[in-house]
Design a protein that fits this description.
Structural class: alpha+beta
Helix content: 25-40%
Radius of gyration: 23 Å
Number of strands: 15
Shape: globular
Strand content: 15-25%
Largest sheet: 5 strands, mixed
Number of helices: 15
Order of helices and strands: EEHHEEEHHHEHEEEEHEEHHEHHEHHEHH
Number of domains: 2
């Protein structure tokens, strides 16, 4: 059972989603014609966001906690920093996690809703992973393991894993990179569902049909007259715990940040059975659907090319599994049986190759170093919001200055990086050629 809403008629109703697949809400032709188009849904969502802001935002809601603004003085240890801050809507908030590490979270100060766009409304919303067989799940996990190991060879991931010592902080700061979130955004099968805090991002996916990795076109199916925008009301107390959501935030690679990405574990709670979720069906209109596609330049603005894309595409396509990934998967899934996993790989046409490892080649790393030379690190740090105190500004400036810091320059200078990691790099390059 899910609550549906038509902003054109202000009609709200509960649906058991028991209609035929091409008209799951059992709407008449007149009711379909009365649905909003995607542009009208966007305008409606912006209007209720504005209403939220004008009503004093999070402090206007009964959250069973003191007013959020009271936590600002805590600085980096503010548990509600992503909701109460003086940053811009494009900033990513430096937020302390329960683990003690720090994440760069999307700013939710004026974004009380998360959205998911689909070109078709379905009876049940589960990830492709959850619909997979046991054998398919193993292959998906192995692909993700390859991806994780690849990321750990990138200079900035090495730096974030090693930690950064900033003057003014008593402890080394570790920035959390969301490996699963990145995997999801690069086409890997992770068991997660995409959401966004930006309605216009969600609308793009509602108006398009997926063709291949990072490839979308206008959705056209005369039998399916409407899609859906899921409108989820964020609750700081339960969204990222009981409802299985997580934020991806600002990452070394751009697309998750561009998409204001959030993820939901579909195995925790079906969004079609969540009282915080409202389904807004919209009528497919080729002209209006194309407008939102053009808004994102056909998707190019949401799926930027970078040094990660070519290798992740190769991992997705290949029938070889590195021994490193095979072993890593056994480590994180101790209930698995090695012999059984090897047999499944063989039966599925995959080979476990001990002489292979995926790495960023020198040519791909040159793309990264060229970005550094062209001001990418400054742009990256400028999107971090540390706060407005004098201390916060000093911390941010130290981050900006890392490329010139004698200890950290190894992660930003090609020659320094190769000098320190030459043995490992040479081994990796040799392995990648087998």
């Amino acid at each position: 059972m899910i609550t549906c809403y038509n902003p054109n008629t202000h009609l709200k109703w509960d649906s058991s989603l028991n209609g035929p697949d091409d008209n799951i809400l059992n709407l008449s032709q007149d009711e379909i014609m009365g649905l909003p188009n995607i542009g009208e849904v966007i305008n409606f969502c912006h209007s209720i966001e504005n209403n939220f802001v004008n009503a004093r935002g999070w402090n206007s809601l009964h959250l069973n906690i003191p007013p959020m603004d009271m936590f600002k003085q805590i600085g980096l240890h503010n548990p509600y920093a992503a909701y109460s801050n003086d940053g811009s809507k494009e900033d990513f908030i430096v937020s302390r996690l329960d683990s003690g590490r720090f994440a760069l979270k999307p700013n939710l100060k004026n974004r009380p809703f998360l959205y998911r766009g689909q070109n078709t409304l379905h009876k049940s919303i589960v990830s492709g992973f959850d619909r997979s067989s046991k054998e398919e799940k193993l292959i998906a996990n192995l692909k993700v393991a390859e991806f994780f190991l690849l990321l750990k060879t990138h200079p900035l991931f090495r730096m974030f894993d090693a930690g950064i010592a900033l003057e003014g902080l008593s402890k080394t700061i570790f920035l959390e990179m969301n490996y699963y979130g990145l995997a999801q955004h690069y086409g890997f099968n992770t068991g997660l569902l995409d959401f966004s805090s930006d309605i216009e991002v969600a609308a793009f996916f509602g108006a398009t049909k997926w063709l291949a990795a990072d490839k979308y076109r206008l959705f056209e199916n005369p039998n399916i007259k409407y899609g859906v925008i899921y409108h989820y009301s964020v609750d700081p107390a339960t969204t990222f715990t009981l409802d299985g959501f997580s934020s991806i935030g600002l990452q070394v690679f751009p697309r998750s940040g561009q998409q204001k990405g959030f993820l939901q574990n579909s195995g925790v709670r079906d969004i079609n059975n969540n009282p915080k979720t409202v389904a807004i069906p919209f009528r497919h209109n080729p002209v209006e659907d194309q407008k939102i596609i053009d808004r994102w330049n056909g998707g190019e603005l949401l799926f930027a090319e970078d040094e990660l894309s070519p290798v992740s595409d190769l991992i997705l396509k290949t029938k070889d599994i590195s021994l490193s990934a095979f072993a890593f998967n056994l480590y994180v899934n101790p209930q698995d049986n090695e012999a059984e996993n090897r047999q499944i790989c063989s039966d599925m046409g995959y080979t476990v190759n001990p002489n292979m490892r995926y790495v960023f080649t020198e040519e791909l790393l040159d793309l990264y170093y060229d970005k550094i030379k062209n001001g990418w690190w400054k742009d990256f740090c400028d999107r971090m919001y540390w706060g407005d105190s004098a201390k916060a500004k000093r911390l941010k400036q130290q981050m900006l200055d890392l490329p010139g810091n004698g200890y950290y320059c190894q992660y930003f200078d090609k020659n320094e990086y190769r000098r320190l990691y030459y043995h490992q790099i040479d081994t990796e390059f040799k392995a990648s050629r087998h």
